[in-house]
Each structure stands twice: as structure tokens, then as C-alpha cells.
Amino acid sequence: MECKNKKEINRREFFKMMGAAGVASTGLAACSDKPTDTSMQEVPTGQMTYRTNPKTGDKISILGFGMMRLPSVGGRSAREGNEEIDQEMVNRMVDYALEHGVNYFDTSPAYCRGFSERSTGIALSRHPRESYFVATKLSNFAPSTWSREGSIEMYNNSMKELQVDYIDYMLLHSVGGGKDSMAEYRKRYVDNGILDFLLEEREAGRIRNLGFSYHGDVKIFDYLLSKHDEYKWDFVQIQMNYLDWRYAKQINPRNTDAEYLYNELAKRHIPVIIMEPLLGGRLSNVPDNIVAHLKQREPERSVASWAFRFAGTYPDVLTVLSGMTRMEHLQDNLRTYSPLKPLTEEELEFLQETATMMMQYETIPCNDCKYCMPCPYGIDIPAILLHYNKCLNEGNIISSREDDNYKKARRIYLVGYDRSVPKLRQANHCTGCNQCSPHCPQGIDIPKELHRIDDYIEKLKQETI
Q1: Nearest to residue 414, comparing CAs of 404, 428, 403?
Q2: pTM for the model
């Protein structure tokens, strides 16, 4: 969803007027109008928490900069719409991150409609190569890139776009995310000899660390760990947050509880990199009763900081990735990790109680990754699902006209829907072609959900439920 400043000020002009260092924190709730408690807090310098890579001795910042949601010239994430990446703002954010101790930057050929690596390379190449670690992925999702030649071309292009002659952290991208994950894994990495090629590149020093990012099918996760003696994985990237810790499988049967994933890696002493610490923003934009629950405990901390502290508390976590579109996102995360205050056992129990409270909301497990996009019919799938989740979390999904909140909730849903999703991109245009669902790491039956939401909207428009 696109957020608009109430005075419609262009974000670049806003930052020029206010200065990057003075921008207020929003607690990572990108579309929130709620006041923040951290806006006047100083952003610490020289206090970043670091973790040591046991193989290389590299000191990695516990906060990793995810280059998936880079700012566009219009101010929103460059993953949305067709606006160009705001390279000036990316440069400023990268500079600010490095100045405050962040040294791990994660990108992919698939991010920001294919332009993230180039933007990342431009921003980082202005700094000494030894001052940062760059991670990218072999994102050979399309069958056209499954050939040895196609995959090697993608790998070489990553080097070119990033303006480097070696990659610090290289990943097999989204292993286990497909419908037939083992067959797809073999086609993407084994049958074409690409995994052997990457192992040779590691031996030659052009890849310093080799790992994989895991989505979905636990069988392939267990299989790849069983091959650890052969492949010697240097790290593994998993989805981990306090909701997925014990409820991932309950949210989506295809997923695996993060508690199991982390413990399996920890007992093999494989460093863990965390993605989705906010579960696609869901843990920063939580229902009001959850906000009150967290604020009662720590009034001065942002809601998002609880999720980031959770992810960073576990000792085998090397870094926690955050896709940061705005300077205030970066600043709030820096406050959380400079230095990190690990959660106590009692605080971990408190967060699990919070997760249990959140499970009463049957939200659609969309993480806004946009792997389902673009839709051939122009539908804005993530915006539709996220608007539904937002209204559900805020108590604005009603089941009966007899509900006391009916008129208000109806108006909030319909007005917000039209503002969030242009008419030609709404759910009623879904044909059920199902080109989207196979790409969803969460295994959502997207056409089914779109049709269900559209039916609900039509009933609201007819003023009957």
C-alpha cells in the first residue's frame, strides 16, 4: 500500500528540509499514523553489536541491511509500481548505515524488479571494499535460467552489478519454496552442475561463504543439512520471528516452526541469518490490543524493536536482515542494536504469550515479498491481502449487519480498499489463472483468497453480509 504524507510533500524534499539525522522514527510501521516514542532519541554511534563468523573471523553487524525494499523516487518501496530507485537516498542510507556500524548488505538479482544489485553496487562501491560484506543469491527461479550457462551468466552478472571481484556471502535462493521442492532444487542446482560450480568458486576465493535461504518444505531442509559434511555450509538463512517460532506451521501447514530450524542449525554450529524478523511488517503493525500489551511493558520502545530483539537474542544468529525503505526505519533499528539488549528468559516467555494472543487473528500469511508479482492481469495481490489483514487486525472485518461496528467497519474497509488498490488492480479482476500461487513461499492459495475477499467486498457494497 502506498502511504501519502498528509501535505503531499515529496519525500526527497522532506529529507532535504529536515536532514537525514533528524527524521523521526515511525517504529517501522510504514503506513502508521500512530505517534512514536523514539523520535527524539539519539541514534547511537560506535555501539553496534557484532557477531563473529566462526570460519572466517569476520565481525558482522547484528543488523543487516536488506536491499529488497529500496526507496523509489516517489518515496515508497521500489518493489511497488514502476518508479525508479531513488539512488541518492539509497546512497545516503548506506552511508548512514556504515557510519553507525552496519556492514552486512543483502541483495538479489530478483529484488526491486531486477535493479537492487545495481543500486547496491553503486552505493557500496563508494566505500573501501574491506568496510562491508555483501550477500547476493543465485535467484534462478525461471526454467530459462536453469541451464548451466544461464545460471553462470546470472552469477557473473551479479559480480558486475555489485562492482566486486568476490562475493562475501552467496546463497542458493529460496530452496524448498516450490510445489515439488526437491525436484526443483535438483533442476536448479544439481543436474546442471551449478552447485559444484559454486563450490569450486568458493575454493577459488571468489565466494567467501556459501549457504542457502530456506522456504517451506522441511524435507529439503533436513536433506541439505544431512549433506553438511559434503557441502560444509557456511551459513543458512531462515525466516525467524516470535510468531513463527512456534506457530509457523499453524499459520501455514507448508512452513516449519523456526524453533526447529534454528535448533537444527545451532547443534551443527552453522551460523544463522534471519530474514522476515517482522514477518513482512505484521509484527510492526500489530492490532491495537497487542500494541497496548507491548507498550505497557516497555513504553519507550517501538513495537518493532521487540521483534528485532527477539531475533538477535539467539547466540548462533550472525545477522538479522531488515528491508529498510526509509531513514527512520534504519534509525529505529540502529537504536535497537546499538547495542543489542538480549531478551531475558522471562521476556522471551512474555513474547510467546504475545504470539499466542496474536494467533486469534486469522490473517492471511502474506509477507509482502511480491514473488507472486507481476500478475498478468495487473492485480496488486499483496496490497489486497495486506489491506484485508490490516482491517482484520483492527477489528474492521464484520460477519453480520447486526454488529454494532458494522457501519464504521464497512466504510473503513471500502474506502481504505479504494485508496490502497486502484480499481483496475482489485480482486474482482482475478481470472483464477493461478500463475501466482506456485511462486508464493508461504503456500497461499492466492486465487482462492482473492475470490473470498472479492465476495466479501461485494456483500459490503450491497450492504448485506
Answers
A1: 428
A2: 0.78
